[in-house]
Amino acid sequence: MFINVTGSTIDNLIGQINFDNTIYVQGDKTYKLSVFNLTSEFFGSKKVLKLSSDFADVKLYGDYKILELPSSIEKLMSNYLPAYFNKNYKNISPQNFEYSILFKKNDAVLRLFAPDLSIAPKTSIRGKYNSLRNDFELTGNSTKLSYKGIDFKNWSVVAINSNNNLQLNSTCDKLQLTDSLLLGNFMLCTETHDDSVDLSIEWDNKTKEVYKGNIDAFLYFNKNKSLLFKILPSQLTISDSLWVINKTNEIRIDSSTINVNELMFEHNEQYILVNGTVSKNKDDLLKLRFNQFNLSNLNVLLSPYGVNLKGRINGISTVSDVYNDLIFLSDNEFLELAINDNLLGNGAVESLWDKNKEALYLHGQFTLAEIPNILFSGYYYPKRKYDNIDMEVNLQSIQMQLLEPFVKDYCDDFVGVFSGNVTVKGAIEKPILSGKLNVNAKKITVGYLKTSYRFIDEISIEDGAFGVENMTLFDMNNNRALVTGKVYHNNFKNFQLDFDIQPYKFMCLNTTEIDNNLFYGKAYATGTVNIFGFTDNILIDANVKTEKITSNDKSDKVNLLSKTEMTKIFIPLSGTSEVSENNFITFVKKDSIDEKGEYTVNLSGLKLNFDLEVTPDAEIQLIFDQKVGDVIKAKGTGDIKLKISSTGDFQMYGDYDIDNGDYLFTLQNILNKKFDIEKGSTIKWSGVPYKADLNISAIYKARASIKPFFPSDSSSALKKRYPVDLKLYMTEELLEPHITFDIGLPTVDAAIRQQVLGFINTETEMNRQAFSLLVLNSFVSPPQFNSGSGGAGVDGAIGSNAFELLSNQLSNMLSKISSDFDIGVNYRPGDAINKDELGVALSTQLFDEKLTIDGNVGVNNNNQNTNNIVGDVNVEYKLTDDGKVRVKAFNKANDNNSTIITSGPYTQGVGIFYREEFDTIGELYRRYLDAVSNRRNKEKKKEEIPSTEITE
């Protein structure tokens, strides 16, 4: 701090005051000022006052007396409004100076001294004042000013006096009154003279729907300081509707009394007429008369609150005792009233003053199609501070869409009706509601889950809470969940949820990648779910197991061939992008707003903890590349914990044991081969979903000649294609797996198989032969053979892979024809050793997946140029719901490539089998005893129940 000044008053102060890094503390708030430098000095006969600071730069130059400046300005104004400024302004020193103010970053100072005001940086005000010549000038501009929530954007002002007139012109691009109400291209012009202020206000929003106005008015100040305000013939356009203000209006303001006479706004047959007096006299009334007034005119004010009105109103409303206990009386008729596009019908609302109770009696009724749907009546006691409201409300078949503004953050659809009786007591500032509502919710879609539900139940209303008890919630398949819980609130604020949900085969997820790029899919579950917390900090705890939905679980049970819907969860592991040329400079239209943005999932305030028992009724897909189909699809069992924090952190824990599945192995988006995942493969999560530990073994079944391993043997049997099992082992981390291969020859003679595998005795040779099978569809000669023979040529490999790619695409298209059948086509061109092969595969599941049929038919040209038609058919039926007991029949073509054919072309069989999984023999034995004991107890109870005849 540095102070070096001389003088006895602020007006004769000379010197310098400097503050650096100043801290001002008020209560629990701290304000910092880095620079504050005030200097006052003389240049000849002129005094210069300068302020340099973080928040503003101010300069005064000339002759001035700061303490007398307010009185000097009043004296100036007395030239134009002598009736209002009529003091004795003698002995005031002359003022003659220039001034300038440049605002900087001033938020901290304004919060301290003017919290309702906000001034944008670089706002400037400058001008001059000469009291001897009554000369005054002011100019100013700002990119934005705000006062009590009203914003002035690109504001400017010019004020000047001349010819006994004080003129002021102010403009702004936008005068933002509320979030949805603005006046565009706003201009205010005033001219003050002879106790009068002439006003002109114009605006034009220049929108598709016309919103503009041109209002002329004047103010006149009487000698007793009363004020006369009159709007001259003016007009304004609201939503393309032209409204006119009548010329006979007059408003007089005198101290605490306001008298309004014939102030009318009219459009065709619509009008609002205001007459009456507002004063401290309790008997004075201010009357508002409505005639065919269209309520949609109010939507520009109500839209920020999610309220949209339609309909018309006729009647009279009166206001009295404004300065004490406001009394509002009305007798209004509503025609075709609709709130948020929901028609309430025609009705009337009336309020009367009851002198004996000193209360306002209100009653009303709305009727739709001659049926009353809203009735209310009761008292409001304005003189009471507490317990000043006592109302009864009866509701019949009210559309739930009325409540949509309050649930729009959570629900996309809110369709249905509700009825009931509600009592409203307590204070008008804090009402107490009680009663019951019967709700028929036809459709409620939860935004985050994209699932739709419905229910018919009773909602209880009590002080501070809404609740349900064992409410049955139905999903789109008519499956159920029991819901018990309450929504707590503090005067309809700070809503808190506490719900227990018991779903059974219930749809709890129905999202796509667009809805949520962390994970998505369709999920059915059975278990328990708890939802708890305030609406901005919700915790969802779930302990559920995955389910599937059969035709018995669906509302449409006519189609017996209806395909079972399984739980399918998709977890994208990486994204794809395209690289393309982009111009360095982009030209955009001025004032245009780019509304496009990257979609992000809003998880703020939401925490999820899932204990998920995964069953074979669910399929999990880990997507490496969506475009080329690089995906692991698996069904199995496991206990997995999923945790999602409010910041979007997604964690997974647990082991997943795969029963069956497949992996589409891709190479550079060109090669794709389908591997069948073997039972016993596992995926383990320890936190980050993308860093799971893999232990997966999968098989790609091919057919290839083993001739490349025996180049000198001319036996025709070696030239034939034999079944080959190419095994892929995937271990270590999910996104960077370690992949190894193994090769099996299940139908080749053991001695020959041993010789072949003897050539593939290193990891390098194993990878070489594996990629040859994947790329060339054949083995290649081992390095020790230098003949170069064996294996498919490049042209043959390209042709074979091209036909396999086309076969895969054709199979995919055929399978999309019907969701009840899977159809596959595979064509393999011949080569120098083998002829063409064509295979067609068909599989389906009927009767809720109890009956499974799959088979294939193929044509194989042998070396004798004769066509061999071969076919395999498998039929399997589950005798029990859990699939432990099954009957299976098959017809299988014998391997025509066998070196010795000892039987016919086909092998048939039928059998029954039972499957049970256990860890120890003792566990299996105890399980058997428990099952026998339970069956005996059921039979005993059945015998004890006497037969009864039910009569009505």
Account of the 3D structure:
- The protein is mainly beta and 952 residues long.
- Helices cover 10% and strands 55% of the residues.
Q: Could you give a short description of this structure?
A:
With 952 residues, the protein is mostly beta strands. Helices cover 10% and strands 55% of the residues.
Uncertain runs are 557-561, 575-603, 792-799, 862-867, 896-902, 945-952
* Rg from alpha-carbon coordinates: 43 Å
Query: What's the main sheet like?
Result: 47 strands, mixed
Record field, number of beta strands:
53
Count of helical stretches: 9
Shape: elongated
Strand content: over 45%
Structural class: mainly beta
What share of residues is helical?
A: 10-25%
C-alpha termini separation: 100 Å
Mean pLDDT across all amino acids: 80
Features:
mainly beta, 6-stranded antiparallel beta sheet, 9 helices, disordered C terminus
Helix and strand arrangement:
Elements: E1 2-6, E2 14-26, E3 29-43, E4 46-53, E5 56-63, H1 69-77, E6 96-103, H2 107-113, E7 117-119, E8 124-130, E9 135-147, E10 150-162, E11 165-176, E12 182-193, E13 196-204, E14 212-221, E15 227-231, E16 234-238, E17 241-245, E18 250-254, E19 257-267, E20 270-278, E21 285-294, H3 299-302, E22 309-320, E23 327-339, E24 342-354, E25 359-368, E26 371-380, E27 389-399, H4 404-407, E28 411-427, E29 430-446, E30 451-462, E31 465-474, E32 480-488, E33 496-503, E34 506-511, E35 520-534, E36 538-546, E37 548-549, E38 565-572, E39 606-614, E40 618-625, E41 630-644, E42 650-667, E43 671-677, E44 682-687, E45 693-705, H5 716-719, E46 721-733, E47 737-744, H6 750-759, H7 763-776, H8 794-815, E48 821-828, E49 837-846, E50 851-861, E51 867-878, E52 885-893, E53 906-914, H9 921-944
Parallel strand pairs: 36-39, 38-40
Antiparallel strand pairs: 1-2, 2-3, 3-4, 4-5, 5-6, 6-8, 7-9, 8-9, 9-10, 10-11, 11-12, 12-13, 13-14, 14-15, 14-16, 15-18, 16-17, 17-19, 18-19, 19-20, 20-21, 21-22, 22-23, 23-24, 24-25, 25-26, 26-27, 27-28, 28-29, 29-30, 30-31, 31-32, 32-33, 33-35, 34-35, 35-36, 35-38, 37-38, 39-41, 40-41, ...
